[in-house]
Write a structure and sequence with these properties.
The protein is mostly helical. It is 48% helix and 0% strand. The protein starts with 16 loop residues before the first helix and ends in a 12-residue tail after the last helix. It contains three helices and no strands.
Length: 77
């Protein structure tokens, strides 16, 4: 739910557990696109939450970008 960035289903900060699972499923074959989407949404969320909190800066890097798993290691040949 924008501009508060809470989940419509469980009211936890977005991306919540169910949202993370859905995103991992949707972007299973395109990690770069997932990170691009999350970075774009992080900027938007920071703008929204900063304006809601009387201009106090909000850093959402961990919330938006620290949870996706690292890329899979290449398979040995």
């Amino acid at each position: 739910m924008r501009p508060t960035w809470l989940c419509r289903i469980d009211a936890h900060p977005w991306p919540c557990g169910p949202a993370k699972l859905a995103l991992l499923t949707e972007y299973a074959n395109n990690r770069a696109e997932l990170l691009n989407l999350l970075a774009t949404m992080k900027v938007e969320a920071e703008q929204h939450l900063t304006s809601l909190d009387s201009g106090r800066q909000t850093d959402l890097t961990r919330r938006f970008l620290a949870w996706p798993p690292p890329p899979a290691a290449p398979s040995p040949r």
